[in-house]
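pasting input
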Amino acid sequence: MILRVTAIKLFRGLLTLLLVVTFVFVVLRLTGDPAEQLLPDDVDPLVLEHYRSVWGLDRPMHEQYLRYLASLARGDLGVSFRNALPASELIALRIPKTLELGITTFLVAVGLGVPLGIFAALHRDAWLDRFTMSFAVLGFSLPNFFLGIVLILGFSLHARWLPSSGHGTWQHMVMPVLTLATSFAGAIARFTRSSMLDVLGRDYLRTARSQGATRRRQVLLHALPNAAIPIVTIVGFSIGGMIGGAVVTENVFAWPGVGRLLTNAVADRDLAVVQAIVMLVAATMVTANLLVDIAYAWLDPRVRVGRGEGGR
Amino acid sequence: MRFRTVLIGLTTALTLLAGAVPAADRPTVTVAVNDLPDTLDPAEGLGNVHVRVVYSMFDSPIRRDFLADGSGRASKLVPGLAESWRRVDDRTVELNLRRGVKFHNGDEMTADDVIFTFSNARVLGETPVAATAKRFWSTLSHVEKVDRYRVRVVSRLPDVMLEQRLAGYASWIVNAREYLLKGKEHFMRHPVGTGPYKLAEWVDGEHIELVAHDDYFGGKPTAKAIRFVVVPEVSARIAGLVSGEYDIAVNIPPDQVPVIARYEDLALEQIVLDNTHVLVFFPEKPILQDKRVRQALSLAIDRDLLRKALWEDRNYTPNSHQLPSYEMYMADYPGFRYDPARAKALLAEAGYQGEEIVYRLPLNYYLLSLEAAQAMQQMWAAVGLDVKIEPRENWNQTLEEGVDIRPWSNTHRMPDPLGSLVPQWGPNGPVQRNKKFPQREWKAPEAFNVALRAIETETDPARRQAAYRQALDVWMDEVPGTMLYNPLETYARRKAVVWKPYSLYYMDFRPENLRFE
């Protein structure tokens, strides 16, 4: 039974990937010619033709598409037009840097967002709640590029405490992590608060209270586990988006991750690289969803039972 | 007293000793750039991001001395890898190569390297591996060996610009052995030249580090290393410069100039480029086939106002398709006029009824091009021209059906019409030949193409000059396009790092153009 469910999920995942790859192929190829993007604006038309034929762009669109799918099936992600390196190699170089940023951001955001949300819920409608939530909304709504530049101006230009951009030391991480974690923590705080409020009024908490459980015990052992499902959902979605979502921040801080590779590759219409990254993001999304499902089952026995009976 | 004397003597000696070992002390120069190149094969990557790196890694047989008059725009030819050269006839130049020049891998540079650099397989043949270079060498026949240190560069047609070509784009000499043994794909990532700096590390998307090539024939490099660090965001480039992370930052937009000027330890280096922002008028719609409408489009533009508003009037508009650095420069040639009254009269004569004209441009390609477009739209409206501005994401979308005006830039890669007017507006250039949209081709009058052919093959200076004037007369009257101005490029540097930019995007870190205070 579990095997069948997994097989179905895997099939769905592959279908999603195929759809994504096809969509990206059509959109990218219809909106720009890699040869024109990569060569200078005053290039000789003959040279343009030459590169088109070298890169196979002079073939009919459907043939280019089928050739691409065939090479994918062989496990070949293709070669970048821009610098003739295999797309897989280019991405492999960048993944550790994006993960470094992503994981730190994730820890900071969860570490800030969950306690802030609980805190706000426990002080519902008091000024502390309003203050925390205004802060969360602000953090959530500030555009990344704006916050990033404000941080650069403050900490690098004026205070000269932190390096303005690049990658290498822990100091390099502070501003990009702050930029990314602010909005993420804001979202988590808001979800945690509403989810906690939802559970705080439930019967089992009243029971716990009447049995004389301490405040801390009520919150951590009774309320939080029950409030966790929506929080896990939002966190799960965010992990998937983390790789693709760091695009703006990586550009502002010249962080050499996958996000920056993606922006350059899209601008150049460097098809193999864009496709490989999009597949990576899609695969991360699919995996994250799967992990969220598993986490549900672990957090909520009812889900486990439901799944066991073949329901949804 | 004696003790003090000894102490002072000792200190002085130590200081002198320290001064005698500069190699260890040489600083590293960190340059914050907007982007890194994708290839370091110097015949292939010819964009600004490429040439600013390869210029310090390779040498050409002859060198253009941009600093001959201190301006960074001069075009004097001086010895490079060739210590001398002589004209054999109107199609041939003989190069006398320097002896003992060492490539980065230790090989000696000889005639074979020069011959390979310009070989059919690399740049000249039907399907060369580095095809982008071909346009600079369209007239080259071959390079032949005289002996180990002498070669003859032979053109198919009489060519007075051969020496200039040997000092320009795509003339950087590569190590033949390395290229042939390991192939182009390897060479573009691991280039081997003779320049003052050699590749040490290239981390894609992060930085390219060059280290001093101490055997450089032009003297020991003054820096230990040059690091090009990619910082796409301009405020991060400036912040890093202020905080001391970078020594030089490129591509500073004009509105950030006052920010930099506030810091005492920073200096600005501005140079007007040998590049002109241009508009091309496609004669596709019937109304634009009438040259009077095209003339009106050009006459309606107040270029002085554009330069003042957008560039603080620190740049200039060339008088027709030429630059003051050209050998054939005609100072008396009339420039682009601003005459709205004449524009209105021409439109009335042509029977212009307010037909819509579409000006489509790619965003973020040419600096300040959208601002210029919006200002020009008002100037055109003032004479009654209905021009619609359509910003697009890229060239493909810009050049789709329905565009009447496109922006363009012409880089004057040699101080001669052969560097720009002939390849770009001539019979084989993209204006007169458009395979995808033949209806957009400019049907140039025969006189124009005859004059361009004369510029290419004529060797008599007076006749060549006359042909150039005639070509410009036709071009200014037919108005297949018009020029706006030459953009200004701004670099910011720490005052302690003394370096000057050139009017092409080369960044020259040779000993004579880089010192520390």
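fyi Chain A has 14 helices and no strands.
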